[in-house]
Amino acid sequence: VLEDGPALARRLDPADAFEFAASSGKEPATSLQDCLESSGKNAWAMDLNCSGGWQVHMLFGVAPMERAGHVGVPWMAASREMRRERRILVALGRRAVGLFGEKWPVLFNQVHGENHRARKWLDHIGFSVDRKTNPFGPNQEPFHPFMKTEEICVM
């Protein structure tokens, strides 16, 4: 999966490229590589072409939050083509969130305030997206925190 980052960065959906730059100040390829490296074995790639000839259209994963091992930081980046496949994105997102929740009872990250499509998608796959924004990133742009918690049974 690590080798798929540069290929997707070249075809990244503009909203994802903008969000990477706003949150980190880095180029999309570098940000994607950082996400993949921090996620380790908890990152996956997806191709839309089932007839052969691998071409990555989506990378997603979850990284452990530093100093809070029970919190996972989910992320996703997709090509323009994948963004048009709304049903696949919602179904895959719900499945991924379920798998992530098995290992991390709390999932938390932030989405850019102007990324309305991503906020709507996050809502559809089970996250609570805060209406308020917080300044974040090198230019202190508006980001909405989003979170999902799994119920933990303590005896």
Give a structural overview.
The chain has helices at about 5-10, 15-25, 30-40, 80-85, 85-105, 115-125, and strands at about 45, 55-65, 70-80, 105-110, 130, 135, 140-150. A hairpin with an 8-residue loop joins strand 1 and strand 2. Helix 1 (about 5-10) runs antiparallel to helix 3 (about 30-40). Helix content is about 40%, strand content about 30%. It has about 160 residues and is of the alpha+beta class.
Q: Pick out the low-confidence regions.
A: none
Using the alpha-carbon principal axes, give the shape: globular
Structural class: alpha+beta
Fraction of helical residues: 25-40%
Mean pLDDT: 92
Amino- and carboxy-terminal Cα gap:
39 Å
Q: Over the alpha carbons, how many angstroms does the gyration radius reach?
A: 15 Å
H/E series: HHHEEEHHEHEEE
Q: Approximately what portion of the residues adopt beta-strand conformation? A: 25-35%
Put the structure in a nutshell.
By secondary structure, the chain is of the alpha+beta class. It has 6 helices and 7 strands.
